[in-house]
Write a structure and sequence with these properties.
The structure is a homodimer of 249-residue chains.
Chain A lengths: L2 E4 L3 H12 L6 E3 L3 H11 L3 E2 L8 E4 L3 H8 L8 E4 L14 E7 L16 E5 L2 H14 L3 E3 L2 H31 L8 H10 L5 H4 L9 H10 L2 H17 L3
C-alpha cells in the first residue's frame, strides 16, 4: 500500500518517522515548506515534493486544522482513501470524491522531542469496514492502542486533551515566569511536577488535590493575589474559584 | 538530637517516614487526631500523644498554615529549635521564646502515595548559622537537594508550586470530568499527560506549547466553548486568553 503524507510540521514528521521505523515508509511527503520537507526527507529517506503529489492508496493529511479543507482539494485520485489527523474536524471536511476518514493520534508532538510511538492512542473513523481495517492495520503498526471514534466523541477527546496537555503546559509557562522573576531555577519544581503526574496514575485527580484553595486557606489566597498581576492573576482567581466550586467550599 | 513532629497529616506522615527510613526516627509525633496519629505510630513505630508534648531539641510543625501559630504556642522549651514546614508563612509566625526557623519541603504529599524523598528540594531558613547547620544536616539525611531560602523567596517558590502542581492537578480533575461525561476512559490521556511533563525536562514550556490557542485556531476555540459550561468554560476562556497574550496573538 502506497502512503503519502501531506504536511511538514510536527505531526507529519512524527507520523512519517513512526511509519518508517515500522518498515512502512511513506512513498512521499508533500507540502509547501521546502526547507522542512527537505529536513524530514534527509532524516527519514523519504522523497518529497512541493509541486507534484504522488499517486497513492492512502493520503494522510497532517496539516493544521484550518488548512485541511483546502489541502484536501488537491487530491484528485478517486479510488484513494484520505484521512485527516485532526481532533476537532469531521471527516466530511475532506472535499474530494475519494473515501474519507480520520486518523487521530492523541499526543503532543514536537520535532525536537522523541516519542514512544507504541503508547500513543490512535482514534480511527472511516466510511466502511474495509477502510476501517486499512487504518487499524496501519495504526497498529505504530501503536498498541488503536480505537474507533466518531467525530462527536473525537471532539470531546480533543477538548479533554486541551485541558490535560495544552493548558497544563501553559501553567508551566506561567509558573516559570513567576520563578524566573525571582531568579529561582525552574528545575527546582521538576520533582514536584513529576510527582503531580505520577500521582494521577494511582489516585483520581479529584482525590489528589492539595494546595491553599482546597484547604480554603483564605490568608494564603489573599497573599498570593498580591504577588500576581495581569493574566497570571486571572488564572489564579479562575482556578481557585473552580477548585472551591468543585469541593463545595 | 531529639526531634518531635507535630501534626498527623500528609506532611507530618511523610517527614516522619523519611526520617525513620534514614535512621533518625522522631522521638514523638504529637497532634489532635488520635486515629491518624495511631496509624502513623503503628506503621513507623514512633510514640504518639495527643496530650503530653515530649521534651525535644527540635520541633517540626507539620500542620496546616492557619494552625501553625496556635500550635507553636504549645512549645514551652526555651532552648529548643522550632521549624514550621509552610511555604507561605514567615518564621516569625512561631509564637514562643525558642529559636525560630523554617523547613520547607517542595513537594505534594498524599499519605497513600509513596515518594522518592531524595529528590525533594528542601528550603531552610534559621536565625543563625548553627541552627541553619542543624536543619541542613537533617534535611540532607532525607534529600540530596537542600537549599537556603528566606521568607520572601519562599513565598514565590510556594506560589510557583501552586501553578505547577495544584492548578495542574485541578486541570486533570476538570479534564476527567469532561471525558467522564462522554464515557471516555481517562486512562487514554495518561500517555499524553506523561509526555507533556517529560517534554519540559528538555524544552522550555513556552517553546513546547501546542494546541488551538497558540495556533490561533478561532474555529476550534469557538467549537470548544459550545461544549463547555460553568467553571470549565471559565477556565477555557481564561487559559486561552493568557496563551494568546503570551504569544502576542
Amino acid at each position: 500500500m502506497q502512503t503519502v503524507i501531506i504536511g511538514s510540521g510536527n505531526v507529519a514528521y512524527h507520523i512519517a518517522k513512526a511509519l518508517t521505523l515500522k518498515g512502512v515508509s511513506p512513498a512521499q511527503i508533500f507540502g509547501r515548506n521546502e526547507a522542512e520537507l527537505k529536513n524530514i526527507s534527509e532524516e527519514l529517506h523519504i522523497p518529497y515534493s512541493t509541486e507534484h503529489l504522488e499517486d497513492a492508496d492512502l493520503y494522510l493529511i497532517c496539516v493544521s486544522d484550518n488548512a485541511v479543507e483546502s489541502v484536501s482539494k488537491m487530491i484528485m485520485k478517486k479510488d484513494a482513501l484520505v484521512a485527516h489527523t485532526s481532533g476537532s474536524l469531521p471527516k466530511e471536511i475532506l472535499a474530494g470524491e475519494y473515501r474519507k476518514s480520520s486518523f487521530y493520534p492523541l499526543q503532543t508532538f514536537s520535532k525536537s522531542k522523541e516519542l514512544e510511538y507504541e503508547k500513543i492512542p490512535f482514534f480511527i473513523e472511516a466510511e466502511n469496514e474495509s477502510d476501517k481495517n486499512i487504518l487499524f492495520e496501519l495504526a497498529s503498526r505504530i501503536s498498541e492502542n488503536v480505537m474507533e471514534s466518531d467525530h462527536e466523541k473525537r471532539k470531546y477527546i480533543h477538548l479533554t486533551a486541551v485541558f490535560a496537555c495544552n493548558f497544563v503546559n501553559h501553567l508551566f509557562s506561567r509558573a516559570k515566569e513567576i520563578s524566573d522573576s525571582q531568579e529561582i531555577p525552574f528545575d527546582y519544581f521538576l520533582p514536584l511536577i513529576d510527582e503531580t503526574v505520577q500521582k494521577i496514575h494511582e489516585i483520581e485527580p479529584k482525590k489528589a488535590q492539595t494546595g491553599p484553595a482546597v484547604r480554603n486557606d483564605l490568608r494564603v489566597l489573599a497573599l498570593h493575589e498580591k504577588l500576581l498581576k495581569d493574566e497570571s492573576l486571572e488564572i489564579y482567581k479562575t482556578m481557585n474559584h473552580s477548585i472551591q466550586k468543585m469541593y463545595e467550599l
